[in-house]
What does this fold into?
Amino acid sequence: MFGFQKTFYFFIIQFLICSLWLSSCQTVDLYERVMSIPKQEWQSKFKPQFNFIIKDTQSRYDLFVLVRHNEKYEFNNIWISLTYQLKGQQPVTNQYELPLANNSGWLGTAMDDLCEHRIRITPDEGIALKGGEYIFTIGQIMRKDPLENVLNVGLRIEKKP
It folds into this structure.
C-alpha cells in the first residue's frame, strides 16, 4: 500500500508541475490556419483567405507565414503578396520575399521529403492591431506560374509576451 501511495503522490506532483509550467508560457496562440494548395501547384490566381477577429487591442502581435513544400521545390525563396483588410476599411497589400534555403540547405523543419517554414514578417516589437474582423489573403508572385511542389500555405498570429 505504501508503494502505491508514493507512486500516486509522485504523479500528482508531476501533474501539478506540468500544469504550472504550461500555464506560465509566454506566448499565447491567437490564430493559425493552413490551407492546401490544389495539386501541389500554386497558381497565382489561387489566393487563400484567412478570417479572424481581434478583441484584445492592448496587445502587440507577431505575424507568421507558414509554407510547406517538398524537396523538389526548385527555389531558395518565395515571393508572396499579403493583403489584409479590417472589415469596412480599404485593403492594404505588401510584398515579401521569404527565404526558404541557403547554401547549407533548407531553413525550415525538414522531415523525409517535406519541409515546413514558419517565417515571421513583423518586426521584433510586433504590430498593434485594431479591434474587429480581419481578412488576410496570401498569393504567390513568383515568375513561375504555377509554382510547383508547394503543398500548403498558412497564417499564424501570436500575441507578444
User: Anything to note?
Assistant: Residues 27-159 form a domain with the Jelly Rolls fold (CATH 2.60.120). The first helix runs from residue 2 to 23. The radius of gyration is 20 Å. The chain is about 15% helix and 50% strand.
